Each structure stands twice: as structure tokens, then as C-alpha cells.
Fold this protein.
Amino acid sequence: MTEQERPLSALPSPAARAAAFVAILVGGLAGGLIGFTLVKLQCTGQCDTPKGIGTLVGALIAAGGMAVVAVLVLRAVGEWREIERRERSGSR
């Protein structure tokens, strides 16, 4: 199927979606590690619950932020491809 035969879709390619998903997971992991370490450095005594909360909050905040970035990147790539397609076809 050539590019001209392909129906117009706002959906990014499966590879781009997979890369965005992996980026969100890595961001969440990094945020969880940061949250855990931040609480670990500040807490003395029984710290299991605060460490868990720090890990969870850090992971959620980082994954949420990374999800926003991933959506913006996927939209920008889609718009870029649409602009390139229009320029190749000669219609603006």
C-alpha cells in the first residue's frame, strides 16, 4: 500500500506508540527511584511506609509528566509528516 492509498489517520505508527510507552515506563521507574532515595536520605527509624509512599508519588508524577511529553511528541511528529506529505504533493 503506497502512502497516497493509505487513509489519513491521526494515529501514530505502532513503533512510535511502543517507544512512547517504554519512555513512560522508564520515566516512572526513574521517578520512583528518585522518590525512594529522597525519602531514604531524610528518614530515620521505621521508614518502610514513607519510602513506599515516596516511591509511588515519585513514579506517578514522573510517569504523568513523561506521558504529557510523549503525547506532545507524537502529535508533533504526526503534524510534521502531514506537512511533508502536503509539500510533496504540491498542495499547501
About this structure: The mean pLDDT is 88. Residues 48-89 form the longest helix (42 residues). Residues 16-89 form one domain.
